[in-house]
Amino acid sequence: MLLCNQCDDPPCVRYCPTRATWKREDGIVMIDFHRCIGCRYCMAGCPYGSRSFNWKDPRPFIQKVNVEFPTRTKGVVEKCNFCEERLIQGLIPACVEACKEKALIFGDLNDPESKVRKALKSNHIIQRQVELGTKPKVFYIA
């Protein structure tokens, strides 16, 4: 599974018949696991292959369950949500925190003084498939 590109114009939101996929005000594309009926239309609509379907119950494979956040279940689609449950607590996504090489940067793209904006300004950047018009908000430094 590939990282969700957190598109500004996400096709997955348009394709979801139950509105289980939606975009937060800050731009993060979310999935409401309780509303997801597992139709996988969002998977078909995502041009990045960033969604996966839970054919099995993933809970037995989760080593440390966060009781403050509902776990996914069999029969729903999931994707990266930048660890929304951590963002609410003022923390950064787990992958960014765990990256020993500090190769991942997370921040507010609207804040010109943020670490992420400074990195984007001073480096050559790449976005995946910009020609599709989805306006991806994940950037890769080349």
Structural class: alpha+beta
Span from first to last CA?
21 Å
CATH class label = Alpha Beta
Please indicate the count of domains: 1
Strand order of the largest sheet: 1-2
Q: Radius of gyration from the CA trace?
A: 16 Å
Instruction: From the 3D structure, determine the CATH topology.
Output: Alpha-Beta Plaits
Percent strand: 5-15%
Q: Write down the overall geometry.
A: globular
Number of helices: 5
Write down the overall mean pLDDT.
91
The overall strand count is 6
- What portion of residues is helical? 10-25%
**H-E order:** HEEHEEHHHEE
**Corresponding CATH architecture:** 2-Layer Sandwich
Oligomer: single chain
Profile the largest sheet.
Answer: 2 strands, antiparallel
Task: Describe the protein.
Strand 1 (21-23) and strand 2 form a beta hairpin. With 142 residues, the chain is of the alpha+beta class. The protein has a single domain (11-141), classed as Alpha-Beta Plaits. It contains five helices and six strands. It has helices spanning 11-15, 41-45, 84-88, 94-98, 115-122; strands spanning 21-23, 29-31, 52-53, 77-78, 125-126, 140-141. It starts with 10 loop residues before the first helix and ends with a strand. Strands 1-2 form a two-stranded antiparallel ribbon. Strands 3-4 form a two-stranded antiparallel sheet. The chain has a two-stranded antiparallel ribbon with strand order 5-6. Helices cover 20% and strands 10% of the residues.
Please tag this protein with its features.
142 residues; alpha+beta; Alpha-Beta Plaits; two-stranded antiparallel sheet; two-stranded antiparallel ribbon; 10% strand; globular
